[in-house]
Here is the input.
Amino acid sequence: MKKFEKRQPVLLRLLLVLAASLLFAFNINSFVHAASLFPGGFAGVALLIQKTCRNFWGISLPYSILTYALNAVPIMIGFRFIGRKFTVLSCVLIIISGLATDFLPDMPLTDDKVLCAVFGGLLNALAVSLCLFAESSSGGTDFIAIFLAEKTGRSAWNIILAFNCVVLCLAGLLFGWDAALYSIIFQYTSTQAIDFLYKKYAKTTLLIITSRPDEVYQVVRNLTNHDATLFTGTGLYSGRERNLLYSVVSSSESGHLEKAIRQTDPDAFINVLQSKAIIGKFFKRSND
Here is the structure.
């Protein structure tokens, strides 16, 4: 049985990070540049600074240098509060994606700004999700979002969306509102897709009626390290005593946990509920 402590192999995590790095660079050199968009986080801030310096002062600054400078403080936050391997892998992504963005040529696929905003946002979400599945991040505001999620137990992506909207308003004031408004579509598409693809910080409540409470509890404990509470009641139709196990787990764990419970007790009745917020102690696996 898979244990909650088991992590992905480092080589697999590194491959996911490399793939995400190239996706980020391709996205910027295709959809983002083609529609003059400003992607989320510090990548968007770096592009805004780069464009401002070029248009107003005639200074050409490399994207990589700007994004490295902006990520200096978030990287320190990562080492201090999130995890060393997590932060090292994030640094690998920041370095490779920055260099790839500078050295790969622009590859516009379409000049339709709506298509660039929607598909660029989806591609950005895919790259960010690859980072998160590799237990790393794309840097910048991702470090902040993960730090806030670890502290509060709630998804912080919508907070990051609000920060990005402020940055885009500055871009609109400097370079016109068309690109800024299309960039908001990019941001919204990306944020909602990430929230859909990555469920680590979402919580799921399981209500399990079972005739094998001890065995089912061991499944929950072994797979997730979460506890459960046993309630005893009476089934009104049959008049028999029933056992109800109550447990809250990460939504990313829910799918394989439900299958394991059904294998342990094929007659188990499972009610799956999405938890809006959890107040109190909740086991969270630390980043390495």
User: Anything to note?
Assistant: Residues 10-34 form the longest helix (25 residues). The first strand starts at residue 203 and ends at 210.
